[in-house]
Amino acid sequence: MRKVEVVIYDALWPVQFDIEAGKIQRIFGDEIIDIHHIGSTSVEGLYAKPVIDMMPVVEDVSRVDQFDSEMKAIGYGAKGEFGITGRRFFQKGGENRTHHVHIIEAGSTHLERHLAFRDYLRAHPDKAASYSRLKLDLAARFPDDIAAYIEGKHRFVQETEQKALAWYREKSIP
């Protein structure tokens, strides 16, 4: 069972993202359109589980599976869609995960909602601080129950994501 660990923001997380993004870019080459740093480690100052979430964007997600052995060679386990249609998910580090890679197709609603949530928290430090407090509280209450920790965040994430999407779409209108 994975222990719930929430830590203070680490300025090395963007560096770790860049290093790993370079490795993934070399494996996938022209298949990758872009690679985004998402999740809590992508928001400066936000407390987070120390796992770098990455979202590479491709034209055709069905072509991703042919790279499973190359991903395995750099430490990733391929998990297929892993509960989200149209995604390919990889984990690095086993029970002591260090990276998650969520590969999705260009135009996916998953891309917009992740970027909106990240950018909203970056632009609204009060919301990021509230999220940090919630995560620290949940980690203290459920140190050995990752499912309860995730469930405890659900309402905050859903409500914030809706606000974030509206904000993100509004700021994107010329």
TrEMBL record:
Gene3D superfamilies: Beta Polymerase, domain 2 (3.30.460.10). InterPro entries: GrpB/CoaE (IPR007344), NT_sf (IPR043519). This is Glutamate-rich protein GrpB.
